């Protein structure tokens, strides 16, 4: 299946440089797991970054390491133990509402960070991902026929379809599609006959814009934090 | 913030010197992985520590933090050399991605709390798990067989010989390594570079 919605090259560049937030790195990285084209682009960017930063050695260090510093560091390295920090086994199966989903690699490596699922308005479920202080990253599960009330974003929202299909006013999004929305866009995500599991991160709470759902605004933090 | 200019796939083919340097580093890494050779690691260290120090000093503007990055990066290289895959990328790119991860963590060290996510979880490049990612460099087999005869003649000799033996004579990389008396890691990196070069030739020709 073709993935049609990708992160832009500047976002991939920031991802490969390590300049994105942890949350955005996770969402972009999970897309890269699912997308052969972006994986190749990231490989090429990493190679280019390496050529610029490492291969083309430009001496900016005011003092390069002395022989004794080198020997000291080598000794410390040989004396170090191979600490295998990997306390958490990746778990790539996620079970929810009688469905089993296979998580892509980067997400599977962070399965221990997936919190409790809670039911939201409509046919929506949410589980927070605990990444670091102040993050707002969630797995959102939309059952068939679910609808998120129309809203805008105070900040940027990145959404990645892990499995299934949803649509908004603009388009339809399937497995691997990466959608970046800025504050000016309003949209109403919904599912039809199929369900949909997405990974989403946003840097400010949602702001609901239509009718009775505006009443949700004071509480939107509780829903989509 | 630098931007990437132009199409990424046209990006530089390596010069002979770079290829030699990459072969050398790949050979050292495989000696470290297979024999825990301290001599090989010391040689690799002398090649990369000054480059890493220069990169880190530019990133942090702080000599001590820069030295921390050098030490942590090279410590990972010492313990994880067996995870380097010569057919996935060059040794220096692999070492650069390790340094990138260390930098990510060092930048967050001050505000980091115990359970906060670390770079190794975000880019699991040093994971021992056998993750099943298909190789982004693999070419479509049919296209390869049709096109390769037209293009492989343009490859540098060292790469062409390897490609001939693998794709025309049907030898395994290990067999080619034995036949030429060249380390397996070198064969793998030559295969990768040759396939990349071929792809560029094919794309440029379209």
TrEMBL record, chain A:
<dbReference type="InterPro" id="IPR012807">
    <property type="entry name" value="Anti-sigma_ChrR"/>
</dbReference>
<feature type="domain" description="ChrR-like cupin">
    <location>
        <begin position="116"/>
        <end position="200"/>
    </location>
</feature>
<dbReference type="InterPro" id="IPR041916">
    <property type="entry name" value="Anti_sigma_zinc_sf"/>
</dbReference>
<dbReference type="InterPro" id="IPR014710">
    <property type="entry name" value="RmlC-like_jellyroll"/>
</dbReference>
<dbReference type="InterPro" id="IPR011051">
    <property type="entry name" value="RmlC_Cupin_sf"/>
</dbReference>
<dbReference type="InterPro" id="IPR025979">
    <property type="entry name" value="ChrR-like_cupin_dom"/>
</dbReference>
<protein>
    <submittedName>
        <fullName>Transcriptional regulator</fullName>
    </submittedName>
</protein>
<dbReference type="Pfam" id="PF12973">
    <property type="entry name" value="Cupin_7"/>
</dbReference>
From TrEMBL, chain B:
<dbReference type="GO" id="GO:0016987">
    <property type="term" value="F:sigma factor activity"/>
</dbReference>
<dbReference type="InterPro" id="IPR014284">
    <property type="entry name" value="RNA_pol_sigma-70_dom"/>
</dbReference>
<dbReference type="InterPro" id="IPR013325">
    <property type="entry name" value="RNA_pol_sigma_r2"/>
</dbReference>
<dbReference type="InterPro" id="IPR007627">
    <property type="entry name" value="RNA_pol_sigma70_r2"/>
</dbReference>
<dbReference type="GO" id="GO:0006352">
    <property type="term" value="P:DNA-templated transcription initiation"/>
</dbReference>
<feature type="domain" description="RNA polymerase sigma-70 region 4">
    <location>
        <begin position="153"/>
        <end position="200"/>
    </location>
</feature>
<keyword id="KW-0805">Transcription regulation</keyword>
<feature type="domain" description="RNA polymerase sigma-70 region 2">
    <location>
        <begin position="44"/>
        <end position="112"/>
    </location>
</feature>
<dbReference type="InterPro" id="IPR013324">
    <property type="entry name" value="RNA_pol_sigma_r3/r4-like"/>
</dbReference>
<dbReference type="Pfam" id="PF04542">
    <property type="entry name" value="Sigma70_r2"/>
</dbReference>
<dbReference type="InterPro" id="IPR036388">
    <property type="entry name" value="WH-like_DNA-bd_sf"/>
</dbReference>
<keyword id="KW-0238">DNA-binding</keyword>
<protein>
    <submittedName>
        <fullName>RNA polymerase subunit sigma</fullName>
    </submittedName>
</protein>
<dbReference type="Pfam" id="PF04545">
    <property type="entry name" value="Sigma70_r4"/>
</dbReference>
<dbReference type="InterPro" id="IPR007630">
    <property type="entry name" value="RNA_pol_sigma70_r4"/>
</dbReference>
<dbReference type="GO" id="GO:0003677">
    <property type="term" value="F:DNA binding"/>
</dbReference>
<keyword id="KW-0804">Transcription</keyword>
<dbReference type="InterPro" id="IPR039425">
    <property type="entry name" value="RNA_pol_sigma-70-like"/>
</dbReference>
<comment type="similarity">
    <text>Belongs to the sigma-70 factor family. ECF subfamily.</text>
</comment>
<keyword id="KW-0731">Sigma factor</keyword>
């Amino acid at each position: 299946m073709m993935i049609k919605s990708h992160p832009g090259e500047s976002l991939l560049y920031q991802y490969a440089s390590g300049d994105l937030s942890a949350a955005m790195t996770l969402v972009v990285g999970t897309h890269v797991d699912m997308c052969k084209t972006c994986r190749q682009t990231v490989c090429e960017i990493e190679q280019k970054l390496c050529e610029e930063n490492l291969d083309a050695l430009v001496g900016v260090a005011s003092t390069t390491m002395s022989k004794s510093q080198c020997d000291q560091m080598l000794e410390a390295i040989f004396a170090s133990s191979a600490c295998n920090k990997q306390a958490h086994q990746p778990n790539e199966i996620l079970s929810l509402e009688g469905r089993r989903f296979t998580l892509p690699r980067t997400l599977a490596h962070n399965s221990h960070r997936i919190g409790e699922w809670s039911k939201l308005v409509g046919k929506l479920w949410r589980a927070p991902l605990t990444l670091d202080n102040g993050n707002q990253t969630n797995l959102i599960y939309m059952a068939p026929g679910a609808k998120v009330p129309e809203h805008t974003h105070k900040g940027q929202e990145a959404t990645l379809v892990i499995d299934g299909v949803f649509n908004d006013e603009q388009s339809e999004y399937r497995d691997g599609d990466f959608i970046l929305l800025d504050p000016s866009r309003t949209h109403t995500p919904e599912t039809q006959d199929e369900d949909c599991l997405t990974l989403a991160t946003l840097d400010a709470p949602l702001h609901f814009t239509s009718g009775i759902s505006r009443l949700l605004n004071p509480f939107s933090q509780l829903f989509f934090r | 913030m630098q931007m990437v200019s132009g199409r990424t796939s046209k990006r530089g083919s390596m010069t002979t010197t770079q290829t030699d340097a990459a072969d050398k580093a790949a050979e050292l890494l495989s000696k470290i992985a297979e024999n825990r050779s301290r001599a090989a690691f010391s040689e690799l260290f002398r090649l990369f520590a000054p480059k890493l120090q220069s990169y880190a000093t530019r990133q942090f503007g702080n000599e001590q933090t820069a030295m921390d990055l050098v030490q942590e990066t090279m410590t990972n290289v010492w313990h994880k050399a067996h995870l380097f895959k010569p057919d996935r990328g060059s040794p220096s790119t692999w070492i650069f991605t390790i340094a990138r991860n260390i930098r990510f963590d060092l930048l967050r060290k001050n505000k980091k709390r115990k359970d906060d996510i670390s770079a190794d979880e975000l880019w699991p490049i040093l994971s021992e798990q056998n993750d099943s990612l298909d190789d982004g460099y693999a070419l479509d087999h049919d296209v390869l067989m049709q096109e390769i005869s037209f293009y492989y003649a343009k490859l540098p000799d060292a790469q062409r010989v390897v490609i001939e033996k693998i794709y025309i004579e049907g030898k395994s990389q290990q067999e080619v390594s034995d036949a030429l008396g060249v380390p397996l890691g070198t064969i793998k990196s030559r295969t990768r570079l040759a396939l990349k070069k071929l792809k560029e030739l094919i794309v440029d020709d379209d």
